[in-house]
Amino acid sequence: MSSKYILILYGFSFEFAANFTENLTPNGTATQSSDDDPIKGKAENAVNPPISNAYSLSYCSNTKNADGGITEAWWMFEFSFGKAFITDIKIYYRENYAIRMSGFQLYVTNTSTIPPDGYLCYEDHNSPQPPFPNTTQTIPCNQLGQYVIYYDNQGSDEISRVVLPVVELCYVAINGCPKSYWGSNCEISCAESCIEQHCYPGNGSCILGGCIDTNCLKSNCDKDTAVCTDGCTDKRTGSYCTKYNMASNSLILIHQNVDEQTSLVSDGNIKSCVTTQGSEILVQVDIKEISIVTAIYFNLNVSSALGGNHTIYVSNASSLSENITVIYSGESVPTLINITTVFRYLIYEPPTLTENSSLEICEIGIVGCPPAVYGPLCNITCPMHCRGPCDLENGNCSFGCSNGWSGDRCEKDIDCIATVNPETSVETCMPLVFKVDPSSGPVNGGTLLTVTGKFLGNDNDSISVEISGVICHNVTVTILETNLTCIIGEGNITQKKGIFVSVNSNNFSDSNTTYFSFKEPKIINVKPSKGIVSGGTTVIISGQNIDFKGHNRYNISLCDSEICIECSILPNALDATIIKCKTGQSREPRNMTRLQVVIDDLTNLTLKETFRYLPDPTFNISNEPQKSLQSGGSTFTIRGEGFNNVGDITVEKVDKPCNVPDDSLAVCETPPKLGNQTNQTVIVHFDGLTVQIPIEYVTDPTFERFQGVYEYDKESTIKIKGKNILNGARHEDYSIHVGLDGSCFITDINMQLITCYPPKSVPRTNQTDVNTVYVIVNVGNIKAYIGDLQYKEDVNTLAFVVGALAAALVTAVVIGVSAVVILRKKKKKAIKEFKMELMTREEIIRKASREGYTFI
Questions:
Q1: pLDDT tens digits, 115-151
Q2: Which of 116, 301, 447, 565 is the most exposed place for a label (fewest CB within 10 A)?
Q3: How many domains does the chain have?
Q4: Same domain (yes/no): 61, 148
Q5: What are the Cα distances from residue 163, in Å, to 155, 167, 586, 615, 639?
C-alpha cells in the first residue's frame, strides 16, 4: 500500500511518497560458485525464509570451503523478467563469522560475467583485523540491472587456519521494481514520456530523463527533449523536474520594490514571475538551515543595465559583509550552476542599474536536501548521530559526529572497547556499568535491581551479574544494550563494594566502587494506636535501617488472628528511622494485634502492638451555609461525636489542619473561593472519611491607609476605617499587629470602623526610626498594611530626668573628692605620730643599756 507523509525536520516541511518497494527474489534464480554439500547449502536457500543469521545448511547457502585451489567465491541472482531497478539489498550473513565477509563486493550487472563487470554498489574494506563488517546489512544501490552478485576473492585468516574465499548467506532480500514499473507493489507503469520508460520505484520520477505527469506542471512536457515546458510541480526543479527544490520552502526577499508575491519565485511555475524596478535591487533566498547544495537553477531577466557583472553569493549570514563566498560573477545570467557547497543564504546582485532598470524573476531552484535527509528525492533519513547535514548521495556524516560517536556514518560508540572472539572472530564491545538502582536492600535479598550502562546485551545473550559479591539471578534485558534487571541474593552488611557483569564472556569488573549495600532492618514502634474504620489514618513506623527507596518495595499490613488490612506506604515518606503509611478500611471495629512489614518479598518484620479500629465519627451538619471571606482563612465549625478517634482533620486546599478542642467539635479554616459561585461546598477529610460543608462566600473587607505617618500620643485610641469589616468575620477573627511584637487592643468594631489601643511603650521595629512602627490588620488570609505609627516623645520629662542625673553626678564627684582629701590628711597625721613613738622607744632602750638594766 502507498502512503503519504508530512515531515518537519530542522525547520523544513516537505512531503514525499513512502518508498514501499517489493522484494524481487521470488522472481528469479539463485546460483553460486560451488556447493560445499551435494544436497544442502544450496544457493536458493538464501532467498527463502527464515529471515535470520542463524546458520544451518538447511537454511543458508554455502560455497565450497577448501584449504586450496579456490581463489574466488560468489553468489548470483538473476531476475526472470529481465532488468529491475534495485533500490537496496539486504543480506544476512552467517552469524559469528563476520571475518569471512571482510573485503566482499556487491554488484548489480547486466551480465553474468565473473569477476563482475557491472555497477559496484558496495565494497568492504578488506582487513585481517577488526572491526569486521556487520553480518546484517542493508546496502543502498539505486541501479538498473538483471543480476545481483555477492563476490569475494579475499579469504580470511581465522587464527587456527586460513580460510579461502567462501560465501555463507542465510537470507537475501533484493528490493526494487521491474523496469518500467513503480509503486508499493510495482503495479504502476512508468510514464511513457520517461526515457526508456524508466522511473524510480518509490515515486515514478524519470531516472534517465523525460517528464511524467506527477512532475511536470500541468503535465506539459516536450516529448522529444523530455523538458517540462511550464515548470515543475511543488518542491521540484530542473529541466526535467527530477530534483528536490529547497527554495520551495524558503524565505525570499527582493530589495527595492518588494512584491507581496515573492513566493512565485520558487513555486515551480516558470511562467509566473515577479518584477521589480529601481537602481538598487538585491535578491536573497533563505533556505532556513545550513544545507548541502549541489546545483542552482536561474530563470530571470534584467533590462536597462549600465553594465557590469551579475554576481551570486552564498553565505551562512544574511549580510553581504559577513563571510560571503562568490560562486559566480559574469556578464550574463547562468541558467544552471553545478556546485557542491554548504550555505543557508543565496544572494543575487545584478549589474549596475538605473532608476528605470527592472528585474524579472520567474524561478529559482536550489538542488539539495534539508538537514537530516539524503538521496535523490531527499527521502532517506541521515544517520541519527551526524553533526550537521549528511552526504546527499551516500549518507555519510560529512561534518563529523555527535559527542560519543565515530565512523563514516557515526555508527560506532567511542566507549566501545572492542574484543574479538577467537573462535568465531566476531567483534563485540566490552560491557560498561554506570549505576545500580536502588542502592541498598535488606540482607535477606530479593531486591529487584536495575543495572544501567552500555553494551549490556540483548534478550538472547548469555548474561551473568554479581553485585557486592552476591549473585544476582533472573537477569532480564529491559532496554537493549543499556538496561537490565536482576534479583539480588542473600548477603550481609559487610558486603558493600564491587560488581561483575559478563555478557557472552565479555566481562566488566569493578571492585573499588560501592554500587549496592546490604542493611539489616528493624522495626521498634508504631503510632498512633487507633484510627477509624474508614481508614486513611497516617501511621508512623519507627525503626532502624528501613529507608529502602524505590517502587513497590514494601507490603505493610495491620493483622489480627483472622485478617490483615493493608497500610499503603506514602510517597516521599521514608528515612532511615521512619516509614509512613495510611491504613486501609475495616468492615467493623476490631483490634489488630500485629504490624507486619514485608520488604522486597523476602524480609518479613513483625511487631506485636495493638492498633484499634474505632467507629467512624458522626456529624451534626446544618443545611444553612456558614459564611467565609472570598480570600479564605475564615473559621467554621463542625459538630458531632468521635472526633478524637481521627488522626488528621484537614480541609482540601488548606495547609493548616483543623483544631479539635474536644471530641465533639472541629474548628477549621476555609479555602479561598474558586470560580464565581457564591455558594460552594468545602470538602473536609476525617482521615479516610469525607464530609461536605456548605459555605457562602462574601466580599472581603477593605481598609483605608493612614494619611502619612500617624503620630501617637501614647494615651488615645487609633481608628482604622474600612468597608465590609464584619462581612463574614467576627470581632474575635481580627488581630492588629503593631511593630514586631505589639498588638492593638480592639475596643470597638463595626462594618466601617475599628477602634483599638496600641501598646503604651514602643514595640520592637525593623525601621530606622526606633519610635516608628507599622500597623497591620489580620483577618482570615488577609494581611492589610495600614501605615506607620510614630510614638511622640515627652520633652519636659526627658529634660528633668537628664538634669537630675547631671546633678546627682556632680554631687557624687564633690563628695568623692572631699573624702579623698580627708583620708589623705588623716593618713599623714598617723604616720607622724608613729614615727614620734618609735623615736621615744629607741631613746629609752639606749638609756637602759648604759645603766645596766634589762629591758623587757
A1: 999 999 999 988 878 888 999 999 999 999 999 999 9
A2: 301
A3: 7
A4: yes
A5: 6, 11, 76, 85, 94
